[in-house]
Design a protein that fits this description.
Chain A is α/β, with parallel strands linked by helices and about 375 residues long. Chain A has 16 helices and 14 strands. Chain A has helices spanning about 30-40, 55-70, 90-100, 110, 115-135, 160-175, 190-195, 200-220, 225-230, 235-240, 245-250, 285-290, 320-325, 340, 345-360, 365-370; strands spanning about 1-5, 15, 20-25, 40-45, 75-80, 105, 140, 145-150, 180, 260-265, 275, 295-300, 315-320, 335. In chain A, the strands form three sheets. Chain A has a seven-stranded parallel sheet with strand order 10-11-9-8-12-13-14, with helices on both faces. In chain A, strands 4-3-5-6 form a four-stranded parallel sheet, sandwiched between helices. In chain A, helix 2 packs across helix 3 and helix 6 crosses helix 15 (about 345-360). Chain A is globular. By secondary structure, chain B is mainly beta. Chain B has one domain: Roll (Archaeosine Trna-guanine Transglycosylase, Chain: A, domain 4). Helices cover about 0% and strands about 35% of the residues of chain B. The chains are: A alpha/beta (about 375), B mainly beta (about 100). The interface of A and B includes residues 190, 226, 238, 339 and 340 of A.
Chain lengths: ~375, ~100
Amino acid sequence: MNFLGYRRANGTVGTRNHVLVFPTVICAAATAEMISRAVAGTVVVTHPHGCGHMGVETEHVVRSMSGFCANPNVAGVLLVGLGCELITPRTIAERLDGYRQRYEIVNIQEEGGTTATVEKGRLLVEKLLKEAAKVNREPVDISELIVGTNCGGSDTFSGLTANPALGNACDRLVAEDGTAILSETPEMIGAEQVLAGRAASESVKKRIYEITSATEAMAFKAGVDIRGSEPSPGNIEGGLTTLEEKSLGAVLKGGTTTIKEVVDFAVKPAEKGLVIMDGPAHDAVCNTGMIAGGAQVIVFTTGRGTPMGAPIAPVIKVATNSRIYQHMRDNMDINAGNILEGTETIESIGERIFQEIVEVASGKTTRAEMLGHHEFAIHSLGLSV
Amino acid sequence: MVLEALVLHPKDNVATAVRLLEKGKRISFKDRGNDTDVLLVQTIPFGHKFALTDIEPGEKIIKYGEVIGQATKSIEKGEHVHVHNVEGLRGRGDRQ
């Protein structure tokens, strides 16, 4: 099965053809925004990182930034720096050389202030846009797709409708030799034995237990006993009886196939099929990590409703119930609430989500894209000075 | 016909109510492809589970085709299945 994608010089395939303006440090964030505003057709990211990190956090932020900029949905990136920061455009550019991603660099201290940087940046971005315009969509096998899964603003229906339906879509994608990413490690606690039972190898099984134990230990250190406090009183009132029931409702969004690999946050999977990415359940962080890991499309289930999008990847929003689908109609792409009315089944919504993935990968605009949502976040590992 | 409850996997021994279901109501569902039904012996709030078969103490509760806990007492077919008669094997928020 094919979709229409942008084949890159480095062999990867994008579902979008963005020119990205990316500040490598907060000190360059406003200047990056000015450059993007000056040139139509560009996207910009802002964030509070790039300086003051230490040790493993530095590597974590560099990896997240460079993976994001190297995503195949980006035709070219302008890296905007200050000059004296820890993570300079040069730091990211060295990684991008490894990925063979197209980039340009501008530094504020070198150019002599905001105005000069915006002027130089504008010219560089126009050059990148011209290059991007030469690439056209072409039929590409669906096995080139990496789809990230996310759920946020969950409700009682999430585990009954949208999550199992998204899992069904992931199973269809994996059957076509594509890749699905399941992340949000905290939500795996309680369902780790089920995931481990589907591991492709002993080492994958071991990694699943390692990441869930590490997340549980981290929460415990912060004074929270996840196993002892979940499901929450609100969950129990809503009908969830045990932690394993709650966690199963969440991890089912990745589907039911063999877990081929466990990767760290923002690392690109080496395997095709269902892959776990270790990372927080924070909606924007989860999206950013999966996009930095190469995801070209995200599917996001929500029951309470969220407008969340991403700067360079389309985010398909699946409502868990018909009320929120109607109530936040401008944010929603698919209604899985029909399952509760009995007019559709988990399988039929799964098929519709899969079709929507193919159409969106081929250029169909999602609601989050129409509205201009471009949320981006990297979590801190608590190692900043 | 309006959907009343969801059985998420053929192996499941519980169903989830998708609306408030009154005691005495007969709910039909498919058991391994065959039409069958269950008489509710209690009122089941929306989002809560009820037993599709009689369940012995210590027997596993199956939803999504997976174990979500075990029965702490015998549960009658059509009875409410929740924290009063089920405990998690990996964590239960109102217990620890």
